[in-house]
Description:
Layout: H1 21-43, H2 49-56, H3 60-63, H4 65-77, H5 81-88, H6 90-109, H7 114-128, H8 131-142, H9 148-176, H10 181-184, H11 186-201, H12 215-234, H13 244-266, H14 280-309, H15 315-322, H16 325-339, H17 345-363, H18 372-397, H19 406-445, H20 452-463, H21 468-506
Amino acid sequence: MSSTSANPAANPPAGPAPLHGAALVLLTIAASLSTFMEILDLTIANVSVPTIAGALGVATNQGTWIISAYSVAAAVSVPLTGWFSKRIGEARLFVFSVLAFTLMSTLAAFSQNLTMLVVFRLLQGFVSGPMVPLSQTLLVRSYPPEKRGAAMGIWAMTVILAPICGPLLGGYISDNFHWSWIFLINIPIGLFGAISIRILMRHRDSSIVRIPLDKIGLALMVVGIGCLQLMLEIGHDYDWFASPMITMLGLVALVSLTFFIAWGVMTKHTIVDLHLFRDINFRYGVILLSVGFMTYFGSVVIFPLWLQTVMGYSAAQAGMATAPIGIFTLLLSPIIGRNIAKLNLRILATFAFAVMGSVSVWNSMMSLDVTFWDVVSPRLVQGIGMACFFLPVQAIMLSNITPDNMAAASGLSNFLRTLGAAIGTAISVTAWEHLASMNRAQLTENINVYNPSATLYLERLQSAGLSREQAYAALDRTLFAQSYMVATNEFFIYSAVLFFLLIIAVWMTRPRKAAGGAAGH
């Protein structure tokens, strides 16, 4: 076991005593809203890209850079949380990040052209990096030991629900207000969060450690992660490795990250503490978290795409069909968090992956004649799986992490969770379209004069009053819908396999009894 290992029960966090009463409630609201705001900004602009692009007079594919710029910058800055928090202090860094994030949101809202908007989104993403991991760390340090599980339940709700609310809120604002309100709504939330945390944590900040800056590690990490994230963001638009630019980004990312890992293992004061992976619970917990979110986000992307592309749903209807996943997540997360120290974490995580795998199998049996309720039902059940997945995995992953390494561990795990989601998004869209193309090719092979079924179908269309050209157009639409429907079913089967395989990794961990409280240590 590494030096990061410790019995959480025997090592309470150093520093001031926990908060109580109104101060604790205010801290929880401020930290949770700040976390919600940051994660919301990852997805809120997605559905608004056509509106923003039209308002700024650019093509939609150019408008997607407001998403890519934010994601790339955030991916680079999240792993730096541990180093910056030791140099500045966790509370000071959190307050600075929230205020800077709010300022960049305001400047983005008043952008006059695409270049200005992309620059401010890039800066907004970079300063946002420490917000999610430090909100978790501040709650951990401020809650009494017996209530830390409940605090993590509330925190988990914001992490899970924000990506669901983003497209719904972004679509509503785009349809009813000026696009700038997507960013302006952050101002009151950001000011409230920063001022509240500053007042409550002024004399409770973590100690400052003057550790040297690992310039070589920083350069390798920025180049490697930046190229990797950019490749994932724009790869689909450039046909992946058929493009020399995407190939070059991939090679640079591979070489840079390989040298970064080697440098991090050999160097004592690294920009990111890779020695955390020596702990078996952190190592397998990160695998469960990142691969779990990768598979989950793949389904979150493909599901509305299928509804809009194949089933004819509007963006609002697709959002309404996806949103019910948050119902049971919202209801169960605080309950699980409050009782997590009493639960068997591995059994709970196993149940979660079994539920999400079963829901994927359920989704794989959809057809073109499903009703709205048929679409919504799996989303409701998946919410149970998500509520039982995130908290136990977090508790297992952090069960041996000492208080002085909590910010570094949270930053690293949140980065890998976000990276997993980005990989899941990129792979799922490409795989779905590839499967659809293969299915369409196979179906098209059967459309010829020697196939009596195809001939009969065309004759029926023509007898209904369609011309020959109209009949072939109708047949083409049917082939399109069927090929994507089969591709959707196949995609969810692959997702189910991944979820079920993660159960094996759950039982590779070794959480201590009552390690559920470790999420708060």
